[in-house]
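Hello everyone,

My group is preparing for a crystallization screen and wants a predicted model to guide construct design. The compound we'll soak is zinc ion. Before spending weeks at the bench, it would help to have a computed complex in hand. I've included the protein sequence and the ligand's SMILES below. Output in structure-token form would be ideal because that's what our pipeline reads.
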Amino acid sequence: MKSMSGGSARSRGSSCSSSRFKAVDGELPKSCSCGYKWSQQTSLTKKNPVRRFVACPVRDETSCKEFFWTDDPIPPRTMQIINELESEARTMDGQFKLYKLRL
Ligand SMILES: [Zn+2]
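Reply:
Good plan to model first. Here are the tokens for the complex, ready for your pipeline.
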């Protein structure tokens, strides 16, 4: 279904152009303010390991940096464990599969 007309009175201009990431927990809009459908991604940063988020699909080509988390924040303790496992797994290389199974 393609309806680019987007009837509702949603004219927020192009506040999309700021270079800062805009993460909002809570309600997820249907699309980013460019009008594109979100692309599903998984964060692999130390701060937010294996968290899921949706991001603007054209954020590499435009200055749009919008994204939203789509799952709950990881509790600090769990995050620490994940990061520890990950760095251990990196050193041990081949053992990574094992850790994955235990998660
Ligand atoms: Zn966008």
